TrEMBL record:
PANTHER family: LIPASE ROG1-RELATED, LIPASE ROG1-RELATED-RELATED. InterPro entries: AB_hydrolase_fold, DUF676_lipase-like, Lipase-like. It comes from the Eukaryota. This is DUF676 domain-containing protein. Transmembrane segments: none annotated. Pfam families: DUF676. Residues 11-205 form the DUF676 domain.
């Protein structure tokens, strides 16, 4: 697989690694890979990470270590490489942040590649303790392990006997930790989040937002408030209003000064404050076919691809609706900009 990936580009200088999510596979982000290759040409080497296939239940840290080892292997096979970008879908967004800490958290260039861009799509940055689609009673959190093992404990911000300190995701949001050092090392950071209708990862956790954002069933009522933010640089009123598909809002959130006392705040707010110590582009996406009663937006966002009999799910979810969003993500990774209005065929309005 590694050899096949390397020969697709003659002398690539930019390595882009794509990481799938929970119970996913390398082919899930095949659409984004195709977009990146089409835009970047021979300058870009796009690698679909496979180290976590079938191994997404043992926690975020373990997945990050496996991904970091895979990146080292790919980088060693292509000596012309100069820079690295990471893209993670869903749980994969946490994996790429954990892998970045393995590669860049010590403040040294162990990998030999300059950290370029970090992008997440539908990633539960703030966990899912308060960000399930429907409010989940705390008494049911202990059942999460049946669904996703140690990974569920990480996502639900549960401390274990083996690690009685702060939950891992809270540690990963600490700007003074090795995770914070690694996050700051990237030149640019962008996240894509569904404004409504995401049953798996509601907008608040995917967009690193608190202050009213919680259970995803209520996301639609808050879209107008988010679209009215002062840092909005692109707004499509048709998408925000649920009358068109694609990118509805692009915010350029500047780096925030760390707030005193944030460490004593509720964990979700502490994570929001910590992760906001760096600048983020926040891209809000919406699909007409995904709403309160049909919350199928999660796999539309990355235009998720599957193999074998599972391809039938693509038809049910109409995952191809996310292709223009992935084209925008590819332009951002390769060219340093994503022109939000092209999220729905080049139209825009303000």
């Amino acid at each position: 697989m590694l050899a096949a990936a390397v020969v697709t580009a003659a002398s690539p200088d930019h390595l882009v690694v794509l990481q799938h999510g929970l119970y996913g596979g390398a082919s899930n982000l095949a659409v984004l890979r195709q977009c990146l290759v089409g835009i970047g040409g021979d300058n870009v080497l796009v690698h679909l990470a496979s180290a976590n296939e079938g191994m997404t239940r043992d926690g975020v840290a373990a997945g990050g270590r496996r991904l970091a080892a895979e990146i080292r292997s790919v980088a060693a096979s292509a000596p012309s490489l100069e820079s690295l970008s990471l893209v993670g879908n869903s749980l994969g967004g946490l994996y790429v942040r954990a892998a970045a800490a393995e590669l860049y958290g010590g403040g040294q260039q162990e990998l030999g590649l300059a950290p370029n861009t970090l992008v997440t799509t539908g990633c539960p940055h703030l966990g899912v303790r308060r960000y399930t689609y429907l409010p989940l009673p705390p008494a049911l959190h202990s059942l999460g392990g049946l669904v996703a093992g140690r990974t569920a404990s990480d996502l639900l911000l549960r401390r274990t006997d083996a690690d009685p300190r702060r939950p891992l995701l809270v540690e990963m949001a600490d700007p003074d930790s090795r995770y914070g050092v690694a996050l700051r090392s990237f030149q640019r950071r962008r996240l894509y989040a569904n404004l409504r209708g995401d049953f798996m990862v509601p907008f608040g956790t995917a967009a690193i937002e608190t202050g009213g954002w919680a259970a995803g069933v209520g996301d639609g009522r808050l879209v107008a408030r988010f679209a009215a933010r002062r840092d909005v640089v692109f707004r499509d009123v048709e998408v925000c209003g649920g009358r068109a598909d694609g990118i509805g809002v692009v915010c350029e959130q500047r780096q925030e000064r760390a707030e005193e006392g944030a460490e004593g705040a509720e964990w979700e707010e502490e994570m929001r404050a910590g992760l906001s110590a760096v600048a983020w582009d926040k891209v809000g996406v919406s699909f007409r076919a995904a709403g309160t009663l049909t919350p199928l937006a999660h796999n539309k966002l990355p235009a998720l691809r599957r193999e074998g009999w599972r391809r039938a799910f693509e038809w049910v979810e109409q995952a191809q609706e996310g292709v223009p969003v992935m084209e925008d993500a590819a332009r951002f990774v390769v060219g340093g900009r994503g022109r939000g209005g092209e999220g729905r065929g080049g139209e825009s309005s303000s």
